[in-house]
Amino acid sequence: MNNAGATPRGDFLAFDDADWQAGFDLKFFGAVRLCRAAWPQLVASQGAIVNIAGIGGRTGSAEFTIGGSVNAALLNLTKSLADRGVREGVRVNAVNPSAIATERTQVRIDRLAQERGISSDEAAAALARELRVARFGTPDEIATVVAFLCSPGAAYMQGAIVDVDGGQTRTL
Fold first, then answer.
1. Adjacent-strand bridge partners of 97
2. CA 144/CA 14 separation, integer angstroms
3. Rounded distance between C-alpha atoms, residue 75 and residue 55, angstroms
């Protein structure tokens, strides 16, 4: 599983080239390097790769320009490696989490509470409404999907991109 971290939120004018490079280095090139290093062993073991991208790769947003761009690149890499994996026996899929109850989400909630002068619970409920989800997902829910994608039950899944987002992504 590739899960390198998170890129900063913000409009593209707020970032310089170094910020963009750091975002791609962290998540995209980290996945490229890990997949390349592991590929021979994955071929030998008929293994599986699960890239953790994010829904920003499917749905562009002015407030998530670096992350969305990096995630889109990672989704394309997933499809490309899945194509190669068909020939060499390596399953390659991706998971797109959305609003997951992590420290990063809590920082957003706390910032929203401070900006609006409301409690953390009220801010969490407001953010969930703004994201159009009933609740935040949990890390365990992401882990369950990853475990499934690595299991024999997902043996026929190749190049799949699974949105684990509480219905937030409304693309086809």
1. 164
2. 36
3. 10
Q: What is the pLDDT of residues 79-123, one digit of tens each?
A: 999 999 999 999 999 999 988 999 889 999 999 999 999 999 999
127-164: string of b/e by CB count within 10 Å (b at 16+)?
bbeebebeebbeeeebeebbeebbeeebeebbbbbbbb
Tens digits of per-residue pLDDT, 112-157?
999 999 999 999 999 999 988 999 999 999 999 999 999 999 999 9
Q: What is the largest CA-CA distance in the chain?
A: 56
Bridge partners, 96 (sequence order) = 163
Q: 159: alpha, beta or left, given left = phi > 0 and alpha = psi -120 to 50?
A: left
| Cβ atoms 92, 53 nearer than 8 A | no
